[in-house]
Amino acid sequence: MSFFLVFLAIVVAAGLVWVGLAAFRGRSLPEALDGGLEEPEPGLPPVFLPEHPTPQDVDRVRFSLGFRGYRMDQVDEVLALLRDRIAAQDAEIARLRTASRAEAEVEAEAPE
What we know:
Oligomer: single chain
Structural class: mainly alpha
Strand content: under 5%
Helix content: 55-70%
Number of domains: 2
């Protein structure tokens, strides 16, 4: 029972400190409750990909940790799928360009 009371006291004290900080910053209680906690500034610059990313660009992407963080396994899985999709598209584009060049050569060699 005493553990519960200590825990409750800590939670109440933390809530009072949070409300006090919101008041100190000039925000009313409803504004503080609506906005929640502000996101911290990221430690790394924003993540950008080039306009036409390559699979190597996706491999080099790194995310900074935020207040709530992220599940690295999920992000890594999405990035792996994105990398594979880009690689498949690049292969398909190369195949179509090769076929188009071969077709153009056949038409150029055909007698008129």
